[in-house]
Amino acid sequence: MKTAPNILALADALAHMDIGAAQMLLHELQSIDVAEALEQLPVESSSLILMQLPKRAKVYAAMHAAYQARLAQLLSRADLATIVTEMPADKRTDVFKALAPSEQVALLPALAQAKREDLRRLAEYQEGTAGAIMTSEYATLRAEMSIAEAIDFLRQEAPDAETIYESYIIDEQQQLLGEISLHQLILAPVDANVGALMATDIVYAYVDDDQDDVAKKIARYDLLALPIIDRQHRLVGIVTYDDAMDVASEEANEDFLKSAGVEASAPTLNLKQTPLFQLYKKRVFWLVILVFGSLLSGLGIAHFESIIESNIVLVFFLPLLVGSGGNAGSQSATLMVRALATGDVVLKDWLLLLGRECLVALALGVTMAMAVAVLGYIRGDAMVALVLILSMIGIVLIGSVIGMSLPFILNRLNLDPASASAPLVTSICDATGVVIYLCIAAQLLPQI
Amino acid sequence: MKTAPNILALADALAHMDIGAAQMLLHELQSIDVAEALEQLPVESSSLILMQLPKRAKVYAAMHAAYQARLAQLLSRADLATIVTEMPADKRTDVFKALAPSEQVALLPALAQAKREDLRRLAEYQEGTAGAIMTSEYATLRAEMSIAEAIDFLRQEAPDAETIYESYIIDEQQQLLGEISLHQLILAPVDANVGALMATDIVYAYVDDDQDDVAKKIARYDLLALPIIDRQHRLVGIVTYDDAMDVASEEANEDFLKSAGVEASAPTLNLKQTPLFQLYKKRVFWLVILVFGSLLSGLGIAHFESIIESNIVLVFFLPLLVGSGGNAGSQSATLMVRALATGDVVLKDWLLLLGRECLVALALGVTMAMAVAVLGYIRGDAMVALVLILSMIGIVLIGSVIGMSLPFILNRLNLDPASASAPLVTSICDATGVVIYLCIAAQLLPQI
């Protein structure tokens, strides 16, 4: 029952090719732990061990896509067909889609006809939609069944369905009529009728809905599984809570990386395994954009070159003032991006939030202005201190308003608000800050 | 079945106090939708409607903590006791903990003794641990039961348990021996023995484990529920997948806000409802710290004041060069914080990752250096272009290394790596960038 030491013992047994010891340990371990242990091995060794495992399909399904693909190339067509046949339909589709076209063509004839057709159909749904993450293996019942018949029916269907804890009631046209949980079935009198007990106020999603919306619905309504229907209201699949959890963590990851100007798209970046050129590509775009963004700040400075030459002390405070606007702005942007992503905030709240933000930013600006005023007086004089106070308040206020508004504007333009990344907001706020600071300085300080 | 229009109709009916229409609509809606509709109303109106609802406990449990607290003050002690008695044990504990001490004292005598003792026990676990999110209402079986007996037993216990899809087998000392799913029970021959069929390779957590680790285990092993045991290996509760999803999204939210230097701790910030002073407090700390951080850049500039006065063109490129280091650094830090949070990367990988990062950063630096070299030549001369090239490569390289290392160092010091927020990394990289840029300039450019 102590998982961690078992994994170490397994890795050791595998490294020494002690198959007997490995098999004993493998029996006690969870599939994902076995998968990770095998992934440490050369693909030639693990392909031999994999086929000996009773849980081979689950272990294979739990592996990373890259390792799966390397194994798929090595396994015989019959072995690969055996494994993917044993997998749940949604995982099977993922593996199939990751294969090279020539391998796909080779695999298909080795599958039973029903699986083959199911696989073709599931593989057609566009990535990122409900269809691409749903499984076609769900339990259905008829409204006219008695509870006893329904439980018997599930007993026979169970080995194939992804879950029997939620069953869906459909009519002859595959129209979704209701759902009933195994919990309800167990508690109900055996001679009652499924149709009388089923819930009809069902939460569902359409097959072309965004996968993120599917995950949100499952989390919001605490569902075990969400039925997926087509536009004719026919049941075509279900998405289970465990897949929804994966989607939610993938989306959170993407938003997080975007916030730092790293392009993120599935499959998620793995720092250890992603090729270096991929990492470079995902980061270079925003960095170069921001180089040109920073030129705006440079242009602001160039415009005010003479006031800087007359008061070189201004340069001392430049990074501080400009940075503060960027920091306050990226705070606002992050708060807003999160609020939009979690659905706490919708577009019509914008004016209310802007008003609140101005008050908070004003308080922040005044606090920070007090902190720098003293420094300005020490390094410069009272006039420099005044320039700093006014600039700081203005910069923090305007930076916050920019940070708060940018995600809204992007959302309005149907762009991902998470693209209002910290670096983008920072570079816009920087340029604005330079202009505010030097404008105020030009008004108040002497010029040669 | 069309949820969204129903919610609008409900809000309308409620606003006109059309109780008949509202009741019809309420019957068809999910608890969380009803909760949100009621939250739009003054607490006086919703308290009246709430008590009429058959699903009142579920609706109350789905409300935000602040609204729950206001309702709790308004409801009679008997009504509140009725509602919390009908709630699941974990939700009941959350409500109880949010009450003022005087209200807690008033509520306890109104509860049945068993609930009262259970509540006291659950409320004692520290926030953030498995104990604080677990429920004490789980289904247990004995190893010696037959399958038929077990299913009968669950039928009787079901109304109280949070889930009957996983049952836990314990001995007289409450020691956890195994688990069995309802799926297995349904499929098994009725005269078989629970002890013979139960799984003994159970994934579990300790009651004082971090709630984040609990959520990760549930996601990793695709569990419906995770048993929680004390240090004597006695079963004390379970955490279900839906609570794990809430924890995971809360933790992702916190990390996200920390990345922008916003202090985040449960309960999660709600931009619309959090008092303004709270928002101010959560943001001001890092902003003021960063003001002083930026002073480092200022000091760097002060040290090189004469080279700047001699070559005022350097100021034009200052925001660009310094910003690029900060941007590259915050990208690296974000990638690393995420990799540590998702467990993709562990401490011993540091040297490998640092090597990879240097190569990527070098490539990024060279790309960006080419972009600015042209500008340097146009605005200055060949020497200025050379200064820019060397500075850009050095700044991006060192910025990336800082961004990559800081989360590791924080982790090593047992601090939260997510505190290596973009603003913190940016301000350290900024100061380093200033020094690198002006040092190189001082070597290569003429000084008056």
What is the CA-CA span between the terminal residues of chain A? 80 Å
Count the domains of chain A. Answer: 3
Helicity of chain A, as a percent range: 55-70%
CATH class division of the largest domain in chain A: Mainly Alpha
As residue ranges, the low-confidence spans of chain A are none
Number of strands of chain A: 6
- Please give the CATH architecture of the largest domain in chain A: Orthogonal Bundle
Q: Taking Cα atoms only, what radius of gyration of chain A do you get, to the nearest Å?
A: 30 Å
H and E order of chain A: HHHHHHHHHHHEHEEHHEHEEHHHHHHH
Task: List its traits.
homodimer, 448 residues, mainly alpha, CBS-domain, 3 domains, three-stranded mixed β-sheet, 22 helices
Could you give the topology of this structure?
The structure is a homodimer of 448-residue chains.
Chain A: H1 3-15, H2 19-28, H3 31-39, H4 43-52, H5 56-61, H6 65-74, H7 77-86, H8 89-98, H9 101-107, H10 113-123, H11 130-133, E1 139-141, H12 147-157, E2 166-170, E3 176-181, H13 182-187, H14 194-197, E4 205-206, H15 211-220, E5 225-229, E6 235-240, H16 241-259, H17 276-303, H18 305-310, H19 313-342, H20 350-379, H21 382-412, H22 422-444
Parallel strand pairs in A: 1-2, 4-5
Antiparallel strand pairs in A: 2-3, 5-6
Helix pairs in contact in A: 1-2, 1-3, 4-6, 8-10, 15-16, 17-22, 19-20, 19-21, 19-22, 20-21, 21-22
Transmembrane segments (chains A, B): 284-304, 311-330, 350-378, 385-410, 422-445
Membrane topology (chains A, B): Multi-pass membrane protein
GO molecular function (chains A, B): magnesium ion transmembrane transporter activity; metal ion binding
